[in-house]
Write a structure and sequence with these properties.
This protein is of the alpha/beta class and about 350 residues long. The protein is built from 16 helices and 13 strands. The longest helix has 25 residues. The radius of gyration is 23 Å and the shape is globular.
Length: about 350
């Protein structure tokens, strides 16, 4: 019995070794490194990758070389059934062909010229965040219920479909709904106010309801499939980012696991923003801190992980009537400040003096 078990184990190891050798023969790192440097470098341009591997990559949502470059070795190794060291070499080689190494400040300035902005319909709010909601970045808005987080999401979902000269990007929207807050009727109101066709506006919004944290993560991971199908996505909205995580991971004992999963989730969103030059807008819930005796005890859920990952952080609060106040809490380039705006039936607007 022992000899048979050892024989079976030896055969399994042999089969695994043969599979690894096949993969290594299929993916020739030396050929990949000698491929021509190009910003339009594609998977098919990698002469060392065979049809079987390309199919596995495409089935997993890796439709371009940038997807490989922004992946991590563990994930790529699992998908392509190869060794992690081989996956790491492939990623590094592809990155070198996409000019993802060190560049000068002037080169980076040229890259930043590709960044686009989506207007919020409030000049004061646009000015606060540097001209609008930015592509290649994550904009987070947190605040109590009724503070205008979802209303800003509705407005952005309509505005992104406007022409660029009107503050839009002529693009489509992906909306991940975790709190059952998406309302087509509100989109119709805002579309009419902007002179857009309501039905066409709704057609340009891809909505998915998330029912668990894992489902929410999966929906984000499947967004590249929409790009592969030719959808001109320019904005991804998650309303709200932390709601399900907060309800599923209860108690201090689950805090570490929740933060790890949330950390990966938010970095997946940032990779999407960089890979496709799209804007990410997420809403976030708040909690009250009883240890704060002076000042505003309101704090955003998600802790330091979400705080560091968000490019722009807005704290929204309700004022009198239709008035809302936005405070810029964090930004890489803009100073802290506040802006007041109205939310009416026609959407966001500036407060008349």
């Amino acid at each position: 019995m022992i000899n048979m078990a050892r024989k079976k184990e030896t055969e399994e190891i042999s089969e695994t070794s043969e599979e690894s050798e096949d993969v290594l023969e299929d993916i020739k790192i030396s050929e990949l490194e000698n491929a021509p440097v190009s910003e339009n470098f594609k998977i098919e341009d990698i002469s060392g990758i065979g049809a079987a591997t390309i199919k596995k990559l495409r089935d997993a949502g890796y439709t371009d070389a940038m997807g490989i470059a922004t992946s991590n070795p563990t994930t790529l190794a699992e998908i392509c059934e190869m060794g992690e060291p081989t996956a790491a070499k492939i990623i590094q080689a592809v990155r070198s062909k996409l000019k993802m190494d060190f560049v000068t400040g002037m080169d980076f300035l040229e890259k930043m010229k590709n960044v686009k902005k989506i207007t919020t319909s409030s000049k004061a709010l646009d000015a606060l965040i540097g001209g609008g909601v930015e592509s290649q970045a994550i904009t987070e808005a947190y605040g109590a219920y009724g503070s205008g987080k979802s209303q800003l999401a509705f407005q952005l979902a309509v505005n992104v479909q406007l022409p660029e000269d009107q503050g839009g990007l002529n693009g489509m929207v992906v909306w991940v709904d975790t709190e059952a807050t998406f309302r087509p009727s509100r989109i119709i109101q805002l579309a009419k106010a902007k002179g857009l066709d309501p039905e066409k506006t709704l057609q340009n919004i891809k909505v998915a309801r998330a029912f668990s944290a894992d489902h929410q993560v999966l929906l984000v991971e499947r967004i590249p499939e929409l790009f592969a199908k030719g959808f001109n996505i320019k904005l991804v909205i998650i309303d709200s980012l932390t709601s399900i995580f907060r309800s599923e991971y209860v108690g201090r004992g689950t805090l570490a696991e929740r933060q790890q999963k949330l950390n990966k989730h938010i970095h997946d969103l940032q990779r999407l923003a960089d890979r496709y030059n799209i804007a990410i807008y997420v809403t976030n819930q708040v909690m009250s801190r009883p240890d704060i005796f002076f000042g505003d005890p309101t704090a955003a859920v998600g802790g330091h992980i979400l705080g560091h990952a968000s490019t722009y952080r807005l704290y929204l609060r309700h004022s009198k009537g239709e008035k809302r106040v936005a405070r810029l809490v964090d930004s890489p380039s803009m100073p802290e400040g506040e802006a007041a705006f109205n939310i009416t039936e026609d959407g966001l607007s500036d407060i008349e003096s």
